[in-house]
Amino acid sequence: MTTGQLAAQPLSEVEIGRIRADFPLLRRTVRGGRPLVYLDSGATSQKPRVVLDAEREFYERHNAAVHRGAHQLAEEATDAFEGARATVARFLGADPGEVVFTKNGTEGLNLLAYAFSNAGAPGALDGVDESWAQRLRLGPGDEVVVTEMEHHANLVPWQELCRRTGATLRWIGVDDDGELDVARLDEVVGERTRVVALTHVSNVLGTVNDLGPGSPVVAAARAVGALVVVDACQSAPHLDIRPLTAADSGVDALVFTGHKTLGPSGVGVLWARRRLLEAMPPFLTGGSMIEVVRMEGSTYAPPPAKFEAGVPMAAQAVGLAAGLDYLTEVGLDRVHAHDQQLMRHTLDVMADRPWLRVLGPQDPQRRIGAVAFVADGVHPHDVGQVLDDSGVAVRTGHHCAWPLHRRLRVPASTRASFGIYTSLGEIEALAEALDRVPDIFGLAG
Amino acid sequence: MDLYGELILDHAKRPQHAGLREPYDVEVNHVNPTCGDEISLRVHLDTVAGGAQDGAAVLRDVSYDALGCSISVASASVLAEETLGRPVAQTLQTYRHLHAMLTSRGADPGDAEQIGDAVAFAGVAKYPARVKCALLPWTAYLDALARAGADISAASERPEGA
Ligand SMILES: Cc1ncc(COP(=O)(O)O)c(C=O)c1O
C-alpha cells in the first residue's frame, strides 16, 4: 500500500499500445482533426471494449428486472448482477454481503451520512446491539471529522449531517505542501469524534493519505472508537485497495465510483463491515429492500439488499465488473508502477517550466493520478483552453474541492490526470501544448 | 486560436474602469460555482432631468473588481465601457444583442454598432463552457440594476431585428 516499495515493472510502450487499442474512444480526433490526448481520467475514465460488450450482452441476452420475476431471464439477470457483486468483492478483498451497489460515489457517502441521522428516528435502531446503536446516534456535542482536501462529495453530506443532528463538523487541515496536517491531529480528533471521513487520494493534488498499518489518522480514530470512512474514488483506479478492507485495517466503510474505474456511469460501490451495515438504518426505501410490508409499517431485508431500493442498475454493475476485471488482469501493482512513471515525467515537465507551479507534494512517490498546477499570470481556464485547442483534454476550475483551493490560496487550477491507457507520449504532447501558453498570453516563457 | 483576439487580451491585461468606487447605490457579488470566478460590481444610478431623456435612468458609475479568467475579466472591462454614462435602457439593449450572440453557437457574429467592443467575444459562442465566463459580469450587472430599482424587464426581450 505504501507507494515506496515498487516491485512491479511499469507498463511498456508495447503494452500501453495494446491497452490503448482496447479503448475505442481514444482513437478519435478533436478540434479539427487533432489526435485526442485525454488527460482527464480523474474526472471520468474511458471504457475498454470489454465493458461496452458486457453491458451490451446483458441487454441483448439477459435483460430482466433483477430479483423479480419467475422466469429464466429474471434468473439470468439476477445471476449477472450478483456475479458482478462477487467480482467487486474480489476486487476489494471483501465479502459480497458487504458490497452495496449505489448510483455513484456521492450516493454511497450520502447513504452513510443518512444512516447516522436516520438512526435518530424513533424505532430506527430497534433490535440493534446497543454498542452499535451508540456509534450511530449523533447529536449536539458529537463531532464529525473530515479533511480540508475532500472532494465536495465527502464534505457536503457531512456538513448536512451535522446540520440535521446538531453535531459539529471539524476538519484536519492541509499544509502548504498539500499533505494532511497530522502533527495537529490530536487537536481535531478527540473523545467527541464519532466519524472520521477522509479521502484516500486527493482528486486535485494526488496526495496519497497514509491509511496503512500505523496510519496516524486511523489510529487516532480507533483510539476514540470513531468510525473511519474512506473515499476511495481516486485510489480504486490506480491502487490495490484490498488492504483497506482487511480485518484489522481500522477502516469501517469505503466508497468508490464506477465511472472512474473503467466502468459505466450510474454505478458506484459502498463497502462497509457487516456489523455496521446490519446496524445502519436504510437510506432510500421502497421495493426490493423490504422483508415484510404491511400498511402499518415494514421490516427490511438484510444487507446489502436493505440499501438497494428499486430495480438496480444491473447492466452497469455488469459493466463495472468487466472494468474491474480488466484492471486486475493488467495488475494493479503494474498500473500503479505505470502511474508513478507518468507522475515523475509530468513533474519533470512542470519543473522545466519555471512559470508553472505544481500544487501538492513535489515527491512523485507521495502522489497518484493527478497533477494540478497554476501558471503565473494566466488563469487556469485560459491554460485549459489553449491545451484543448491542441487536443489535450484537462480539467480546469476547483475540481469540486473549493476549500482546498482556498487553503492553497489559488482561485482555481488546471489538472492533468492519468488513466491506465495514458502514455508518456501524451505527457510530451501536454508539454508541447503548454509551451503555447506563454506565446499566446505574452509571458516571458 | 480564434478565442483570444487582441481586444480580449488587451481588456484582460488592462481592465478598463476597474476597481470599486464610491458613491454607489448597490454592490453585488457573483461567482461562477463551477470555476470559482468572482466579480463584485457596483452601480450608481442617476435620473436625467429635462431634455428628451427627461426622467430616464442613467449609469453615473459602474465599478467592479473581477477575479477570473481572461474572458470574464475582459467581459467586465467591456461591460464598463459599454454602460458607463449611458441610459439603462440602452445598456439592456446591448445586453440583449450580446446575449443573443453568445448563445448562438457561432451563428450570430455580433453587431459592433449595437455592442461595441463586445463583438470581440463572438468566438466565445463556439465554446459553450466559456459562455458563462463572458456572461458572469453581465448577470451581476442586471442583478445590481434590479436591486437598485431599475426596470430590467427589457433584458429578456428578443433583440430587435433578431
Ligand atoms: C475524491 C472524489 N470523491 C468523490 C467523487 C464523486 O464521485 P461521483 O461524482 O461519481 O459521485 C469524486 C469524483 O467526482 C472524487 O474525485
What count of structural domains of chain A? 2
The CATH class label of the largest domain in chain A is: Alpha Beta
CATH architectural label of chain B:
Alpha-Beta Complex
Give the low-confidence spans of chain B: none
Q: Give the uncertain stretches of chain A in residue-range form.
A: none
Q: Looking at the structure, what is the overall shape of chain B?
A: globular
| Strand content bin of chain B | 15-25%
In DSSP terms (H or I, runs of 4 or more residues), the helix count of chain B works out at 5
Number of helix segments of chain A? Answer: 16
CATH class type of chain B: Alpha Beta
What topology emerges from the helices and strands here?
The complex is a heterodimer of chains A (445) and B (162).
Chain A: H1 13-21, E1 29-30, E2 34-35, E3 37-38, H2 49-62, H3 72-92, E4 99-102, H4 105-118, H5 130-136, E5 143-147, H6 156-165, E6 168-172, H7 185-188, E7 193-199, H8 216-223, E8 227-231, H9 242-245, E9 253-257, E10 268-272, H10 274-279, E11 290-294, E12 297-300, H11 314-330, H12 332-351, E13 356-358, E14 370-375, H13 380-389, E15 392-393, E16 395-397, H14 402-407, E17 413-417, H15 424-434, H16 436-441
Helix pairs in contact in A: 2-11, 3-11, 4-6, 12-15
Chain B: H1 6-13, E1 26-32, E2 37-47, E3 57-67, H2 70-83, H3 88-102, H4 112-115, H5 128-147
Antiparallel strand pairs in B: 1-2, 2-3
Helix pairs in contact in B: 1-2, 2-5, 3-5
Structural key phrases:
heterodimer, A: 445 residues, alpha/beta, Aspartate Aminotransferase, domain 1, Aspartate Aminotransferase, domain 2, 2 domains, 7-stranded mixed beta sheet, 4-stranded antiparallel beta sheet, 16 helices, 17 strands, 16% strand, B: 162 residues, alpha+beta, Sufe protein. Chain: A, 3-stranded antiparallel beta sheet, binds pyridoxal-5'-phosphate
